[in-house]
Amino acid sequence: MMGGVNDTSTWAIDVHALGGPTSVIEVAGLRLLTDPAFDEPREYPIGPGRVLVKTAPTALSPAQLGRIDAVLLTHDQHVDNLDVSGRAYLAEAPLVLTTASAAGRLPGAITAVAPWEHVDLPRPGGGTVRVTRVPALHGPEGSEPVVGEVAGFVLTGDGVPTTYVSGDNASLRIVREIAERFGPVDVAILFAGAARTALVDGFLTLTSADAVEAAEILQAGRVVPLHYDSWAHFTEGGDDLREAFTRAGLAGRLILLAPGESTSITSG
Prior knowledge:
Layout: E1 12-19, E2 22-27, E3 30-34, E4 42-47, E5 50-54, E6 70-72, H1 84-90, E7 96-98, H2 100-103, E8 110-112, E9 118-122, E10 128-136, H3 144-147, E11 150-156, E12 163-165, H4 172-182, E13 187-191, H5 208-218, E14 222-226, H6 238-247, E15 262-266
Parallel strand pairs: 3-6, 6-7, 7-8, 12-13, 13-14
Antiparallel strand pairs: 1-2, 1-15, 2-3, 4-5, 9-10, 10-11, 11-12
Helix pairs in contact: 4-5, 5-6
InterPro entries: Metallo-B-lactamas, RibonucZ/Hydroxyglut_hydro, UPF0173_UPF0282_UlaG_hydrolase
Domain Metallo-beta-lactamase: 31-228
Protein name: MBL fold metallo-hydrolase
């Protein structure tokens, strides 16, 4: 039986927010790192007259992370999800799960995972955590040629909470597809922040209102937003998320973490 909100098994998951999209997820004895971005605050030129600005340091350096069993890399083409220090870290990581396009550009122990395909990660003491790569759309419909390929991930397994890591997905249509296959989910780790840039007419990540709707679609037991802080191109932050979830009567499901904070979520 897979873990999930209808499962009677006992489970626990810890989420450590490090800033931006970077977090450590501890589940079933495994430590998974999302989107490593470890540079100090700086500006990144991304085209004529355009820059991305990192405004706050990541809470831990690569040397402070400790053991990591696998990296869940949603995409490599945007510096706020994989920066200079993050690329260097990937070269030493034991396993990186990501998109086919990223796998073709990155060195190291990179495994490309197609949408809806999975990789089973061995867990200490036996058994596995299944990591299924799910679709993501990093902007409005039709923006794929500009924003490129992006992945989300779903974690499942015996005694494992069904956990959705959205990546930079802005599409509620895709959230519905994921809910049809995996819902209801125990924990939704949603990249939010309502990111905007000049290249795309629309939001690149979930708005706070969209995050509420995604939580409802997924019937998520708990929602842990990431990627709404530490970068200047986000237009909404923690206060907007708190207000949106409170207005929808879902404040009890929301867990807001500042960089360096963590949460432990358990069944029951």
